[in-house]
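Progress report, Aim 2. The chain analyzed during this reporting quarter is listed below.
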Amino acid sequence: MKSFKLKRLHPKNTHVIYNNYLHDSTLSEYGYKDYRIKSDGTFSGWFVEKNGKRLTSLLGLGFKEARSWLKTHIKREEYQ
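Predicted structure tokens for the chain:
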């Protein structure tokens, strides 16, 4: 994999800040080629999909773990 950089697909002012500290990421969406990382909408994790088909649900994990999962998945696909 030459470069792995996600592109933000949600509008810049999508998120709401509660009490000046809690970031609501329920509308977050990031993409890399045909892949998407989206919030599951319940504050409890993320999911990864390719062409609209869900590949995994990462409940209870953060965005960094979802990004890492996708990067590892893409590397595996390249070597098959």
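Helices lie at 63-78. The longest strand covers residues 53-59. These observations will guide the mutagenesis work planned for the next reporting period.
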